[in-house]
TrEMBL record:
Belongs to the universal ribosomal protein uL18 family. This is Large ribosomal subunit protein uL18. This is one of the proteins that bind and probably mediate the attachment of the 5S RNA into the large ribosomal subunit, where it forms part of the central protuberance. It holds the Pfam family Ribosomal_L18p. Part of the 50S ribosomal subunit; part of the 5S rRNA/L5/L18/L25 subcomplex. Contacts the 5S and 23S rRNAs. The keyword Ribosomal protein applies.
Length: 117
């Protein structure tokens, strides 16, 4: 049985995904946050293809002082990969998470890296 916290996030996620849709021109930047890591993908929803992805697992074995630092590095990494793939503008999908902490750090770092949203 799912907990109330995950049910709430799923409900928010469905409401967000009704409005947020990635296209070839503006793909969707989706964020997933686990207890230990953070993941980001740039997805074209029309074809169902993940264009680029990055996670805190890709950063190496360094133990971070805070997960916010790791999220900021993932944001820079995803922006760097997306610009190399020819993507400059995205639609941000926070995936039901509140926009603060790790999710906010990833988004701001992606903006600094050159993505527009």
């Amino acid at each position: 049985m799912a907990t109330a916290k995950t049910d709430r996030r799923q409900r928010l996620k469905y409401h967000i995904r009704k409005k947020v849709h990635g296209t070839a021109d503006r793909p969707r930047l989706s964020v997933f946050r686990s207890n230990t890591n953070i993941y980001a993908q740039v997805i074209d929803d029309e074809t169902g293809v993940t264009l680029v992805s990055a996670s805190s697992l890709d950063l190496g074995e360094k133990k971070w002082n805070t997960n916010i630092e790791a999220a900021a590095l993932v944001g820079k990494k995803i922006a760097e990969k997306a610009v190399e793939a020819g993507v400059s503008a995205v639609v941000f999908d926070r995936n039901g998470y509140l926009y603060h902490g790790k999710v906010k750090a990833l988004a701001e770092a992606a903006r600094e890296g050159g993505l527009k949203f």
